[in-house]
Write a structure and sequence with these properties.
The structure holds two protein chains of two kinds. By secondary structure, chain A is mostly helical. Helix content of chain A is 79%, strand content 0%. Chain A is rod-shaped, with a radius of gyration of 19 Å. Classes of the chains: A mainly alpha, B mainly alpha.
């Protein structure tokens, strides 16, 4: 095992952790925070709530874009650092 | 493995389109001002439902790509085998959750539905942090694979 492959493994791990953290945030935390007006929000708070939902959704979209960009980079690297020494 | 993973990406992007629809609906810009608030709420729920359905389809590939990732990890000594076992169980778990949700009404609310993806979460989180913090081991494969390295 070379230092290069060890470094590749750590880079793969770092990218994997980024995907995991952003995935947990966008797929688990944010959907649980979204409430529609009228569920537990009074009419006077409707406008603020609408802005809050908007802000959260903008974050989700950004995270999905991040996930889509990072995932193709991570996926080939993770098995590579494990299989590479065979060849 | 990469093919399975890549297939989930355009589906996720379509789901992002549903999220952009939600943004448009809650913005209340001119074309939508003619639509009643109740109708906009119904359209918003429809967009959220579309997002859920797209992610549900994408989840099928999240499970499928874990299987060819877990198998070489089980055979490898580069990282602990337990991660490979967890990833294999998690891959099967995702498939159970996906097909169970389609075939059985209310499956998503059962404890089994929540439990089956736990191995995937443990395996992916564990593998990610292991690679980041510990890297890969010096002796990457079992002795059975040693002759292959000499060729």
């Amino acid at each position: 095992m070379t230092l290069k492959s060890d470094r590749t493994g750590r880079i793969a791990g770092a990218l994997y952790v980024v995907v995991i953290v952003t995935g947990m945030f966008s797929l688990a935390y944010v959907p649980g925070q979204i409430q529609l007006a009228g569920e537990r929000v009074g009419r006077s708070q409707h406008h603020n709530k609408r802005n809050a939902v908007s802000a959260r959704y903008r974050v989700v979209v950004c995270k999905l874009r991040c996930l889509s960009i990072v995932a193709p980079g991570v996926l080939p690297i993770v098995p590579q650092c494990i299989i590479e020494p065979l060849f | 493995m990469v093919a399975f993973a890549l297939m989930s990406i355009p589906i996720s992007l379509v789901a992002a389109g549903s999220e952009l629809d939600v943004l448009s609906l809650i913005s209340g810009k001119p074309p939508l001002q003619a639509v009643s608030l109740e109708s906009r709420h119904a359209m918003l729920l429809r967009s959220l439902s579309s997002y859920d359905n797209d992610m549900f389809v994408s989840q099928l590939f999240w499970g499928l790509w874990l299987l060819p990732l877990g198998l070489p990890i089980v055979k490898s000594r580069a990282v602990p085998k337990v991660f490979g076992v967890l990833l294999l169980l998690g891959g099967v778990g995702y498939l159970i959750q996906d097909f169970g949700g389609v075939l059985f009404s209310g499956f998503g609310q059962t404890p089994l539905s929540q439990l089956v993806t736990l191995p995937a979460a443990a395996g992916e989180i564990g593998l990610g942090f292991w690679l980041l913090l510990r890297g890969v081991r010096q002796a990457p494969f079992d002795s059975d694979y040693a002759p292959m390295r000499n060729h």
